[in-house]
Amino acid sequence: MTDAIIVTEGLQRRFGALVAVADISFSVERGEIFGVLGPNGAGKSTLIRMLCGILDPSGGRGQVVGHDIEREPEAIKRRIGYMTQRFSLYEDLSVEENLRFYAGVYGLSGRKRKQRVEELLESSGLAPRRRQLAGTLSGGWKQRVALTCAIVHDPPLIFLDEPTAGVDPVSRRSFWNRIHELSARGTTVLVTTHYMDEAERCHRLAFISAGRLLDVGTPEQIVARRDLHVAELEVDDGLAAEAALTAHPAVDEVSHFGRVLRLACVGIDAEMLAAEVLEEAGVAIRSSRPGRPTVEDAFVSIAKRDNDPALAKRGAA
Question: For an engineered disulfide with 108, which of 91, 103, 216, 276 has Cβ 3.0 to 4.6 Å away?
């Protein structure tokens, strides 16, 4: 084990014949914002439950905030914060009452609890809503209350499981500003998300599919390893262009964004390929410009090849 706040080595979890998590090894440094991405059913929630000390591993080992996940789960639970995608607070209690309750659950009492609750009400912007019932809040405000309750005991590590699902874009941005503030003060954050723009806000990412770890690295490293090249095209016949481009073995994805056709290729200049393929197909290109490969491009590329061995071989070639 190392000084990292999370370390897993060959971590596994089986439910009968189903392998939910298979031989996962990674580490998370203190103060890092670490994103876990994967399709539904990939094993993300199972992994988090093991790291939180809720589920015992079927194999391998892990250490969280200095404690073994199998032998010391209760010690881990006391030193972490956890926020789920579903609003799990008490809707018939006010914002302040929820904070006071969770502070008490985590062992804060008396003057210390009062001071901590007041401090968080002010720093989170919740003070004007302190007496409002939690159940009457909008999605963005509920999310803010849930995060504040998760950090009421000032844990060194917080787990956020799809924390911004169903929240408007403005609230999502505010939420991520808060996450980076926590990280800057030394709090480690492990977050699962389906929003690719949020994934790019993380310091490092792990891609998981079918319980297996496919890649780990910074957003820039993960994108670079795919060797993706992107072009944004305006063409006369979008459907004909899509059909012609999709048939080429170097093309990873073709997608429509309004009048723009976005082309992602592996290992070859996307604009040059588009010009050659579409000229042969008789489709005129009105305009063409290079695009920036994104984490979403890398995620789609990795997921496609993981699900289709033929594509994996084609990409390797």
Answer: 103
Domain enclosing residue 16, as ranges: 6-217
Of 184, 202, 217, the last residue of a domain is 217
Give tens-digit pLDDT for 111-145: 999 999 999 999 999 999 999 999 999 888 998 99
Q: Do 157 and 14 reside in the same domain of the chain? A: yes
Given 191, 217, 243, the domain boundary residue is 217
Nearest CA to 285 out of 293, 295, 274, 294 is that of 274
Q: What is the pLDDT of residues 47-104, one digit of tens each?
A: 999 999 999 999 999 999 999 999 999 999 999 999 986 667 899 999 999 999 999 9
**46 lies in the same domain as 133:** yes
For residue 255, give the CATH number of its domain.
3.30.70.100
* 197, 252: one domain: no
> Are 209 and 288 in the same domain?
no
